[in-house]
Amino acid sequence: MKTFRRLKLGVLAVLAIGLVGCGNGTTNSDINISPTATNPIVEATATPEPPKPSFQASFTGIGLEQEVNNAPIAVLINNLAPARPQSGLSQADMIWEVLAEGGITRLVAIFQSTPDNDFDIGPVRSNRPYFIDLADSFGAVIAHAGASNDAYAILQRQKKSYLDEISNAGPYYWRSSERKAPHNLYTNLAKLREGAEKKSYQTELSVKGYPFTEQDTLTASGAIKKLEVIIQLKGYRVGYQYDEVKGTYLRSINDEPHIDKNNDEQLSTTNLIFMQTNHKVLDNEGRLSVDLQSGGDALIISHGHSIEGNWIRAEDGMIRFLQNGVEINFSKGKNIIHILPTGKAINEHVKWE
């Protein structure tokens, strides 16, 4: 019996081995026995930071894929109520707001790094000596329509780079049928750059731009979220509301959003700059002299933080902003600069909460 059981067990063992070997048409020598599978360990990898742009815009610090070395163009923009909403202001690197006759302001839009040349800019208005001085500080070609006698004298006798719709550059402007004169004169950068080239004006950037912080935004915003600015007329109030998401201040006039007609965007800025200087009334028309040489107090507000300092006309001709003798680094982004009259402190012109 024991012998029979051993034989039976042996036969069963052989059959079992044969079944294993023949089940998939392979022999024992063809069978690969893999080690027990385990879950692979996946190492977490940090998301690579996008490469930093090789260049930055001279007057905004915004990163650029290629260097832009265009000479700035300064366009004088009408800021009366019938001229609003204006066109092209959202595309400017910076906007200077300066008093004109009667307590209203005019806007000087500086275009240097803007890649698109075909958008409308306007309505364009007339020139004054201090607008020429401001454009000179950037080595800019100034675009305007008409001028005071004093301004024409400076332009012509000092051989300035200018494109005046009335006297020397009419083909580079057009009148819109949507508005009544004088609030309907427009141009664009393509036309202005063509005019500057034909007149052999400087076409390359000749000044050093502003310094900017290394980081794109401050790590935390400060307490200044809402501002109101009264430059001269109480019935003309400029307001700014901080946008926490975009890190910019949205501009309004008399509580109405200040819009760019080209794209329906509300004007915005990263840096709000207020500089104070002496203004003098010259005649019964209210024409002004504005001192852009002597320096004075300045206030910079960005991401809810404020910096008190001063402005100077530097050796290179640029208007620069200092604190304790050191030039202030702006946050990267666009700038709106307000030129305020003396007679009361900056914090009496500018109120915030």
Summarize it:
The chain is an alpha+beta fold and 353 residues long.
* Number of β-strand runs: 25
Strand-residue proportion = 25-35%
Name the helix and strand elements from N-terminus to C-terminus, one letter apiece.
HEEEEEHEHEEEHEEEEEEEEEEEEEEEHE
Please state the structural category. Answer: alpha+beta
Q: Spans of 5+ residues with little confidence (pLDDT < 50)? A: 1-40
Helix content: 10-25%
Secondary structure tally, helices? 5
User: Order of strands side by side in the largest beta sheet?
Assistant: 7-6-3-5-4-24-17-20-21-22-23
Rg on CA atoms, Å = 34 Å
| Major sheet description | 11 strands, mixed
Q: On the 0-100 scale, what is the average pLDDT? A: 88
Shape descriptor: globular
- Report, as a whole number of angstroms, the end-to-end distance: 106 Å
Describe what you observe in this structure.
There is one protein chain. With 353 residues, this protein is an alpha+beta fold. 15% of the residues lie in helices and 29% in strands. It is built from five helices and 25 strands. The protein has helices spanning 2-22, 129-137, 149-157, 189-198, 346-349; strands at residues 55-56, 63-64, 73-77, 94-99, 105-111, 141-144, 162-164, 174-175, 185-186, 226-229, 238-243, 248-253, 256-257, 259-260, 265-266, 268-269, 271-277, 279-281, 288-290, 296-302, 305-313, 319-323, 326-327, 335-341, 350-352. The chain has an eleven-stranded mixed β-sheet with strand order 7-6-3-5-4-24-17-20-21-22-23, with helices on both faces. Strands 10, 11, 12, 13, 16 and 25 form a six-stranded antiparallel β-sheet that branches. The protein is globular.
